[in-house]
Amino acid sequence: MSTRILSTSALVGPALSELGGRFPELRIAAFHSPEWHAALPEAEALVVLLSDSITATDLAAAPRLKAVGTYSVGVNHVPVQACEARGIAVVNTPGVLTDATADLALTLLLALTRRISEGESLVRTGDWTGWAPDQLLGSGLAGKDCGILGSGPIGLAFARRAWALGMQPLFWDREGRGGKVDFELDQAPRLPLSDLLTRSAVLSIHCPLTDQTRGMLNRPALERLPAGAVVINTARGGILEEDAALDLLASGHLGGVGLDVYDGEPRINPRWLQAPRTVLLPHLGSATMETRDAMARCLCDGLAAALSTRR
Length: 311
Ligand code: DGY
Fold this sequence. Notes:
- There is one protein chain.
- By secondary structure, this protein is α/β, with parallel strands linked by helices.
- Helix content is 35%, strand content 14%.
- It has helices spanning 15-22, 34-39, 56-60, 80-85, 98-113, 116-124, 153-164, 193-199, 219-224, 242-250, 270-274, 289-309; strands spanning 5-7, 26-28, 45-48, 67-70, 89-91, 145-149, 168-172, 202-205, 229-233, 254-259, 278-280.
- α1 (15-22) packs parallel to α12 (289-309) and α5 crosses α7.
- The structure holds (2R)-2,3-dihydroxypropanoic acid (DGY).
- The site of (2R)-2,3-dihydroxypropanoic acid (DGY) has 8 residues, from loops.
């Protein structure tokens, strides 16, 4: 039997094997491995991870393709326009990872501003000699302006969390959408980027990586932030110019940087590993059991629809 669904990985939960039962046959082969290339000509649906960058050559080698599904909400690693031009559906996982990702952005923010890693290490290394008035003083969040890049579902969910902590959310959005939020206020203004940067004591990135947003937080943009500002990135690495952020951390202009994503990940600029006032995580934004299960269900439902309806 020919391979109809070609996946680069197993997914969390039963959804992918159920899809394979409904549209046999499912094959799992590592991305760009000889097995994967061999199965490509027969494949009607691809399942990839956010680390698998599909190329035009891959698409050309898959004449039967009806759908490309990614186990992520981000689609920056999929040639969406080329797929659309060939009538190939692009399926992702919007909606189901909103809270998990906003929670992780908040975790980074609190860990950074309350110096959680340093405190834990003090205890674990046995170096803690007792409470002291000025020990590991962090900074509070209430009353501060919180700039949010992107007012899609994750940006809005982060705004709710920022509001709950007493911060004032401010939005910039690449599509000019307003920061209309469903907490009791509609008072999260949308600002031009330069104005938002000037005000943001905290800046959290929640927009996709596109041609427009790549390198958007470059040195001049970061220099606009108030001294001591904290930057959080749970979106995509290419949006923040990392060397500029590292320089501004070293100069003291930035008060801290919390990262879950990196340009060229999993390779990490080694300067991050030595940088002060950072919290570094390995792309855990959507990493809860419930979320990864829901992502698999969302993706496989979308692929089933595409396989059923496309000829
Ligand atoms: C996504 O799905 O694009 C997220 O980056 C996962 O954490």
